[in-house]
Amino acid sequence: MKSTPDTIEQLHLLLNILQNVDVGLVVLDRDCKVQLWNRFMENHSNTRARKVIGKDLFECFPELPGEWLKSKVDSVFVLNNRAFTTWKQRPYLLKFSNYRPITSQVEWMYQNLSLFPLQAVDGSIAQVCMIITDVTESALDDIALQALNDELDLLSKTDGLTRLLNRRSWEAEVEKEFLRFARSGRASSLVMLDIDHFKRVNDTYGHQAGDEVIRQISATIRKTQRDTDISGRYGGEEFGVILVESDAEGASYFCERLRAAVEDLHIVSGEHEIHCTISLGISEISQEMTLYRQWVEQSDQALYLSKESGRNQYNVYRG
């Protein structure tokens, strides 16, 4: 077929577009040798096309995830199908510096990768084209939105004063642990506790002092519990702690450590130094329970016994 001025002009136009389009274009043959390396790739990789054309891509860029990318390229050749990956699956293919001022809070460019087959004249798949797209701005928007959603989710589950779980969220954890026990049979214990004579604190020192007492005792609970334990503010000055995979004996050690730690607190509010104690009740989960609320009620009964017995102590529910 004879070339005409029009076809030559169209070819130059196409080549100009390929060179100047704001995405990375890389064409590979079956041996993964580079056939096209456009200006986007030159600018961001600091590697001129003449340095890579005709050479193995993985030898030119050993930092590439070779095994993973080779399998992607091979699948396009074999299946004659497109392949895709997003920044959420792999943040970038090549570590290109992020150059957009609006997104300067990240060092590297987030990238989406598309691969599609290029057919020869006889219909066979001769080459694969890779398109690398800079999606940094939209990725950062997604990340910021996810962070906001996570923060809102945390706020919806957390008591603002104590930074412990609120009652609804904590009870949901109690129910989950109750169902886990039904499956595994591994014992856990529930501790309910409240602050002794808390009304007297509010009446004597004011509600701000009362809030500070609650904050300090909540912090002491967090310091005393294990990472696997789950604490929450049940209401007012009452708290609950799920001691995961701890029997009543293990829960007793926890309660004594927490009781002693609270008794040693020196809580300062304004000109006042306040000393408080707590009373606690323990219930070890059992096969006789049919509802998780029975577990809460039993630990609450043990707590009531501690208060009736003089406060500043713990008791285990005995049935």
TrEMBL record:
<dbReference type="InterPro" id="IPR035965">
    <property type="entry name" value="PAS-like_dom_sf"/>
</dbReference>
<protein>
    <recommendedName>
        <fullName>diguanylate cyclase</fullName>
        <ecNumber>2.7.7.65</ecNumber>
    </recommendedName>
</protein>
<dbReference type="InterPro" id="IPR013656">
    <property type="entry name" value="PAS_4"/>
</dbReference>
<dbReference type="Pfam" id="PF00990">
    <property type="entry name" value="GGDEF"/>
</dbReference>
<dbReference type="InterPro" id="IPR050469">
    <property type="entry name" value="Diguanylate_Cyclase"/>
</dbReference>
<dbReference type="InterPro" id="IPR029787">
    <property type="entry name" value="Nucleotide_cyclase"/>
</dbReference>
<dbReference type="InterPro" id="IPR043128">
    <property type="entry name" value="Rev_trsase/Diguanyl_cyclase"/>
</dbReference>
<dbReference type="InterPro" id="IPR000014">
    <property type="entry name" value="PAS"/>
</dbReference>
<dbReference type="Pfam" id="PF08448">
    <property type="entry name" value="PAS_4"/>
</dbReference>
<dbReference type="GO" id="GO:0052621">
    <property type="term" value="F:diguanylate cyclase activity"/>
</dbReference>
<dbReference type="InterPro" id="IPR000160">
    <property type="entry name" value="GGDEF_dom"/>
</dbReference>
<feature type="domain" description="GGDEF">
    <location>
        <begin position="186"/>
        <end position="319"/>
    </location>
</feature>
